[in-house]
Amino acid sequence: MVPGSNQALSEVQKRCLTLVSLNRTSKEIAVEVGLSPMTVDQYLSRATSMLGAANRRDAARIFIQSQVSDPFKQLEFKPETVAEQQNSANVEPTQAETETPRNRWSILIDNAVTWTVSRFGGAPHDLTKLETVRAILWTALAATGILAAIITVGAWLNHKA
User: Fewer CB atoms inside 10 Å of the end CB: C or N, the chain?
Assistant: First the structure.
C-alpha cells in the first residue's frame, strides 16, 4: 500500500482516526466505538503504519486532510456544514444539530449510570437516567439511616447505667 493512502482503512479505523482528531483518548474512543482501549490502540497502530505516519495524531491529520475532496475548500472561512447547506435548497438538520448540548456533568452521570446498570445486569427497566440516579441516591440514604439506627440501638443496649 502506498503511504498516505487511506483506501484500505477499515470503517473502525476511520472512526478511530476521526475521534483522535477530536483529541479523544483511547478510553474515550473505546466507549464510543464499543471496543476495549487496547483494541482501539491496535486499530490506530495499524492505521498509523498504513498511512506512513509517525504517530496517531499525525495519522489522524493525514486522514482528515485526505477526506477533503476539493483543495480550494480548505481556503473557505465557513465550516463545511454551512457551505453544504448553501449548496442545497432543502437541507435537513443533522443529528448533532438537533440534539441539545450536554455539559460535562450530564455526560459523566450518564456514563456512571450506564456502567453501573450494565455491570450488575438485571432486567431492563423504563426509568430515565435521572430517575435511576434518584433511586440509587434514595437507596443509599435509606441504607445509611438504617445503619445509623442499628448503631444507635446497639450503643443504647450496651450502655451501662
Answer: C
The predicted model scores a pTM of 0.42
- Please give the class, per CATH, of domain 11-98: mainly alpha
- Give the residue extent of every domain in the chain: 11-98, 104-158
**Any idea which residue has 437507596 for its cell?**
139
Instruction: Tell me the one-letter amino acid at 148.
Output: A
| Residue appearing with cell numbers 476511520 | 14
> How is residue 92 annotated by DSSP?
P
The label of the residue with cell 472512526 reads 15
Q: Which pLDDT tens digit goes with each residue over 37-85?
A: 899 999 999 999 988 888 999 988 888 888 765 555 555 555 555 545 5
